[in-house]
Amino acid sequence: MEDTTFEKDIDAGLSADFKHISSRYFYDDIGSGIFQEIMKMPEYYPTASEFEILSLQSDKIIEKLDFNQPFNIVEFGAGDGIKTRQLLKKLVSGNIDFTYVPIDISAKAIRELKNNMFAALPEMKIKPLVGNYFSMAEDLSSNEMPALFLFLGGNIGNYQPEEAGQLFGQFGSNMKSGDKLLTGFDLRKNPATIRNAYDDKQGITRAFNLNLLTRINRELGANFEIGQFDFYSHYDPANGEVKSYLVSLVAQRVYIGKTNKYYSFKQNELIWTELSKKYTLEEIEGLASVNNFGIVEHFMDCKHYFTDSLWIK
Ligand code: AVJ
């Protein structure tokens, strides 16, 4: 059966009083390519910060795992795996017995990851899974071996605070007592640093956002005129929220073939495209405790821009 989730989500989002498109739709092949460009920008600090943590502190992270038997490392949304590889490399060279289980909804991403990992770490045991995080994690929860779950890259920032709470609740319900979870959180910092990372001068982040409309044109037969929309991003240091928007520059109507409907935009009307929340350590500790996790340690980069926080179930 044809998957109509994208069409339904876009129809609902563009029919709402306050229009919105989920940031999960950024990542078609073109958007994933633009995100690779974002990660190379000097202004976009999260990638370098987390790379530093995993390059310099993997030994400390491994020491804190404290599993005295073979274990699984289950990674949600592994991406290209370059950062994770810093940790895996250390485990392999330390002759530690583990199996790496990356999970992703994209079969293509998983295939590439498997090839890259095999090239870099041919001796590592790897069991990639294609599918939804939770159905896969449920299958694994019956597994006897202890597990370290990885949710890196600061993807948690895209979830609304309530949703983030629910997500950790779901992670927790698929974990055994003593299992651990390492999550990447982007931290509060000088607001100007954050603003520059999400509204770069070259317009790469702008292109990342406008690609949503190109994608809707292509996949849903719509007639968005990309030049009639602008990009706007705003950081509120009081609550740590970066919010990104597309702005309709004129009053206009857009037709979407798949839904066979017109969508009206007022001049300056917004489409909300992304939340990227920046956390305080107190907020992180609150999230852990309401979901019955203990904090093992926050592993931060030298500038304290980012943390990979290790929790225990
Ligand atoms: C992939 C969710 C971590 O929020 O920093 C980058 C996506 N958006 N620039 C982030 C993103 C705008 C990114 N994450």
Structure characterization notes:
It is a single chain. The longest helix is centred in the last third of the chain and has 17 residues. α6 links the parallel β2 and β3. The protein is built from eleven helices and 13 strands. The strands form three sheets. Strands 1, 2, 3, 4, 5, 6, 12 and 13 form an eight-stranded mixed β-sheet that branches. With 313 residues, it is of the alpha/beta class. The radius of gyration is 20 Å and the shape is globular. N,N,N-trimethyl-histidine binds next to β11.
Helices and strands in order, then pairings?
Layout: H1 5-15, H2 29-40, H3 45-56, H4 58-65, E1 71-76, H5 82-93, E2 98-104, H6 107-120, E3 125-126, E4 129-130, H7 133-141, E5 147-151, H8 161-173, E6 180-186, H9 191-198, H10 204-220, E7 229-236, E8 241-248, E9 252-256, E10 261-265, E11 270-277, H11 281-290, E12 294-300, E13 306-312
Parallel strand pairs: 1-2, 1-5, 2-3, 2-4, 5-6
Antiparallel strand pairs: 6-13, 7-8, 8-11, 9-10, 12-13
Average pLDDT score:
94
Secondary structure category = alpha/beta
The separation of the N and C termini measures 38 Å
Order of helices and strands: HHHHEHEHEEHEHEHHEEEEEHEE
> What is the percentage of strand-forming residues?
15-25%
Question: What ligand species are in this complex?
Answer: N,N,N-trimethyl-histidine
Report the count of strand segments: 13
Detail the poorly predicted runs. none
Calculate Rg over CA atoms.
20 Å
Could you give a short account of the major beta sheet? 8 strands, mixed
* Shape descriptor: globular
As a percent range, the share of helical residues equals 40-55%
